[in-house]
Amino acid sequence: MSELNTTVNLAGVELKNPVMEASGTFGSGMEYQEFVDLNKLGAVVTKGVANVPWPGNPTPRIAEVYGGMLNAIGLQNPGIDVFCKRDLPFLQQFDTKVVVNVCGRTTEDYVEVVERLADQPVDLLEINISCPNVKEGGIAFGQDPKAVEAITAAVKKHAKQPIIMKLSPNVTDITEMARAAEAGGADILSLINTITGMKIDIERQTFAIANKTGGMSGPAVKPVAVRMVYQVANAVKIPIIGMGGIRNGEDAMEFILAGATAVSVGTANFFNPRATLECIQGIEDYMRRHQVKDVKELIGIVK
Is residue 279 flagged as an active site residue? Predict the structure, then answer.
């Protein structure tokens, strides 16, 4: 077969291939550069960045569970000032797109970060709406369709880059949230974020994580994630970045066939630092095996 075309387009931003890593599993790439040539990735997604430094939750805050892990890190980050001074210059060295994940406790927090990033070398903004909304009694922004639409519209008004709204799966109807984000002006959606879970240490007779609950990620959540991506792809007209338990090219292809334009590899980075590169290779192998020259021909073909 002649040369494969693995490029995909997200709201006018062209990625050389559909593979990136999921926020919070890769730092800003510094920790992984000896394992992964960042130039080979479609994009690098940073850990969540807030307007001020966040200390995160008390420890212990990670627990292994069957088929994955629970985490309650609490979006620990050094804040936007350090991020702009340290992380963005590092990422500038590489031929890849930069996606900054933004978190906040109020709408104003998100807007502040988005405004700070307006003139920075950033290609896309991923808005993490699984954060608790402190002004609304702590329910996550992403669990109320009115809040989803409102925060999307507020961020969109101030953003210079296209915005990705990252949807929480901890809802009754994911398509309702997706439509709300689209109505608010979202350019792209990413899903799924982690599923709320709990582990109890039976010998100590207490919670395995100090926070009691944590976000479950890893291979066990993949069937839920594929189902949600499929539902959302058939409910909205904007592109989707699919994630949740992706370990290899076969997993990535499930999401693409279900309707995802791009995919993010998360937890797999912890047990296989080269997982992103293996996904890229696996997608290319799949295309050759099925004699498909352009990956875009495969997006959402399973109906």
Answer: no
Q: Which of 84, 103, 131, 279 is catalytic?
A: 131
What per-residue confidence (pLDDT) applies to 2?
66
Torsional class of 67: left (φ above 0), alpha (ψ -120 to 50), beta (otherwise)? left
* pLDDT digits 0-9 by tens, 208-240: 999 999 999 999 999 999 999 999 999 999 999
Give the model's pLDDT for residue 135.
86
CATH 3.40.50.150 assigned to domain 8-298? The reply is no
Q: Is residue 1's pLDDT more than 60? A: no
* Residue percentage of the chain with pLDDT more than 70: 99
